[in-house]
Amino acid sequence: MKLTAAPGPTSGEVHAEGPPLRLAVLGDSSAAGFGAPDHASALAGQFATALAALLGRRVSWRVSARGGATAGTALDLVSALETPEVVLLVVGVNDTTRLRWPPTYQRAVATLIAAVRAHLGHPVPILLAGLPPVGRFPAIPTPVRQILGAHARRLDHRLARLATHLPDVHHLPVGTLPLDHPGLFAPDGFHPAPPAYQLWGRLLAAQSADLIPTPKTAPKTAPKTGPAAGTLPADLTGGPAAAAPR
């Protein structure tokens, strides 16, 4: 079964009493809400709903996403960003299915982060959604499922590595999801169904709520040693550096 992006508005708002927070979700088909009837019940809406509940803030959200997007082709989506205060990047599954070389993927994500910040003209927290357990997707046959699952873990390791090097960039791993429960996959056996988007959104919110600055405070993260903000280490940009694990 071939799915399409969630229909309807690609922006919305979750009401709460506190000050507003502008959220952007940029990425691939999961960011685009494949498998959901609308974006409110897809990843952006569910993440915003969970964040609003945890922060007590009104969260407006906007989606810039396309099915099939990779870390490299997602650059085309950056120009649609308006004035978010936090950006969630959801890329990697299509890099996984293409068996993208891990250093190439890491460089593409680093370039994407730099492009987002250059477009916005000021630093904002960047949240990197960890790769889902591709090795458990029912639509993928064995032994391909095991191969792609292992490759997804390698790429996710690269996301975590980026977050340790770049200021105010945070890796939000998926961890263990109860994917064996019925109703979590869309009919294609590849994309999430609304209950899975809800679980994922809550997980992302729980990990990121303390990372999002309040209107009158600085970001709640300790300064990271290494490159200055806006610069990338040589090994993250393709320059000379010691070989990193694949």
Lay out the secondary structure.
Blueprint: E1 11-14, E2 18-27, H1 43-55, E3 57-65, E4 86-90, H2 93-97, H3 102-120, E5 126-129, H4 144-165, E6 169-172, H5 194-208, H6 234-237
Parallel strand pairs: 2-3, 2-4, 4-5, 5-6
Antiparallel strand pairs: 1-3
User: What is the helix fraction of residues, given as a range?
Assistant: 25-40%
Q: Based on CA inertia axes, which overall geometry fits? A: globular
Q: Report the portion of residues in β strands.
A: 5-15%
Query: What assembly state would you assign to the polypeptide chains in this entry?
Result: single chain
Please tell me about this protein's structure.
- The protein starts with 10 loop residues before the first strand and ends in a 9-residue tail after the last helix.
- By secondary structure, it is an alpha/beta fold.
- The C terminus is likely disordered.
- It is built from 6 helices and 6 strands; from the N terminus they run ββαββααβαβαα.
- Helix 1 crosses helix 5 and helix 3 packs across helix 4.
How would you summarize what this structure contains?
The chain is an alpha/beta fold and 246 residues long. Helix content is 32%, strand content 15%.
